[in-house]
């Protein structure tokens, strides 16, 4: 599935992943019942795995062969640190805000903003330079 998504969306896959992740997080935040919660959780899990795969694919495109091992190590280190610290950060933020469900909205907003910034930067790069 990743290969077909990559072939279809190309460089726009990563911003679309972030926007879809934001949508899944909004579904979790708004979930009125277990069915919607499950749909949101499945959406975020699926989209996250596509996103991580696209990061490693992009890494192999932009780094030289002799730099790829170091780049892969740094990305894996970041993923493991993020996963390991996630529970502590969520506990800290929920203690600050007083509500666990609002954390999903905050993360959705951050993913939406990141996806929008990445999408706009890709669109700006595609525009031909105009002399004034």
Q: How would you characterize this protein structure?
A:
It is a single chain. The chain has 132 residues and is mostly helical. The protein has five helices and no strands. Helix 2 runs antiparallel to helix 3, helix 2 packs antiparallel against helix 5 and helix 3 packs antiparallel against helix 4. The longest helix is centred in the middle third of the chain and has 33 residues. It is globular, with a radius of gyration of 17 Å.
Please give the structural blueprint.
Blueprint: H1 2-9, H2 13-30, H3 34-62, H4 65-97, H5 101-126
Helix pairs in contact: 2-3, 2-5, 3-4
What keywords describe this structure?
132 residues; mainly alpha; 0% strand; globular
Counting H and I runs of at least 4 residues, what is the number of helices?
5
Give the ordered list of helices and strands. Answer: HHHHH
* Radius of gyration of CA atoms, rounded to a whole number: 17 Å
The portion of residues assigned to helices is over 70%
Largest sheet, in brief, is: none
How much β-strand is present in the residues? under 5%
How would you describe the shape?
globular
Return residue spans where pLDDT drops below 50 for at least 5 consecutive residues: none
> Based on helices, strands and strand pairing, what is the structural class?
mainly alpha
